[in-house]
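Long-time lurker. I teach an intro course on protein structure, and each term I like to show students one example going from raw sequence to a predicted 3D structure in token notation. This year I'd like something fresh instead of my usual example. Would anyone be willing to generate the tokens for the chain below so I can use it in lecture? Attribution to the forum is fine with me.
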Amino acid sequence: MSMMLAFAGAAGAPVRSQLQPRSVAVGGRQAVAARAFAGRPLYVRGGAAAAAVRRVARSGRSCGGVLQMAADDEAAAASVEAAAEAAPAAAAGNGEAEAAGGSAARQLLGMKGASAETNIWKIRLQLMKPVTWVPLVWGVTCGAAASGNFHWSDPADIGKSLLTMVLSGPLLTGFTQTVNDWYDRDLDAINEPYRPIPSGRITEGQVKAQIGVLVAAGIAAAVGLDVWTGHETPTVTLTALFGIFVAVIYSAPPLKLKQNGWAGTYALGASYISLPWWAGQSVFGTLDWKVMVLTLFYSFAGLGIAVINDFKSIEGDRQLGLSSLPVQFGIDTAKYITVAMIDVFQVLVAGILYAVGETTYAAVLAALIVPQMALQQAYFLKDPLKYDVKYQASAQPFLVLGILVAGLAVGHHGPL
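-- Reply from a regular --
Happy to contribute to a lecture. Here you go:
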């Protein structure tokens, strides 16, 4: 139930079936400016600005508007022309990458480098990014474990859990990803022109219809779960509505939380960890405020994980004025803030479990924190830019297992 948004806009401009190149005439010279949608212009002048354009194209971050270049003199025109000429080369490189590494699997998972599919249903699935559903399904599992009332031998319980996973993953995460792609369509026209929306392989009407169907189906599934479980207070529906609200304000103006380092990243972490847990526990048991607080602690650890992805885009964020933590504090300070959030809040959860008498679970959780700290020293703190992927691949499994341990502890203990 999330925004995914992930660990991942601006509306108003219509989607064109084809992206049209724009030209800028300066002193008798013309340069193709960029492939972009009609929309709010961002005027760029001079050689330094043209270099900024190239950094924007590499950064992969939203610039909040459509790129339109204008130049005042011959020197500026040459810079603009050089930047414009780099765009087709980058697009060609993306095309070659698609041909070499793009596969049906990448297409269906919604991963970068997917092949240029023409089947509308496969395109719709690509917009929903199935690869981002997995953490939400895991969160539902942790919530069901925390309820203490899930039984593998009961077909009704299995049916409820599967419907909750569909709600949290394909429906509401799919909704979130589609909304995010819609509001990022102007940037994707520059950075990832092969994506479904900027490539014109799906129309504006089809995108909006998909958003509407997914959100309606998500709400219907949540209401159905509340009826199935006999809830007097529709806790699953309320959780789903809250997730939809967070998803929209994360991607859409005027709030667009993703532009703010702290708020956006925490919203992302909470959506991956807390919301699916709440849904899973609500279906099989009672969700109280103490458990909600416990999951929000884990969401701060999730915030730390999400910040790791910001280190590699620090230069682009600076150029675009995005307030990621590495931009705000610098790489050296931000890396320690990051590991502190990951470690401290897991230790707090372990402390809570110990305090309520679940000493075995607390010890297991503590044992899962130790290798994370060791890997931070070995990789992330040494060079967060070089070892970010290696650190996440090696350390995150321990964090994910720790979340399940916490859920099992709550299920074993009962109300905190």
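Some talking points for your students: The radius of gyration is 23 Å. The longest helix spans residues 155-183.
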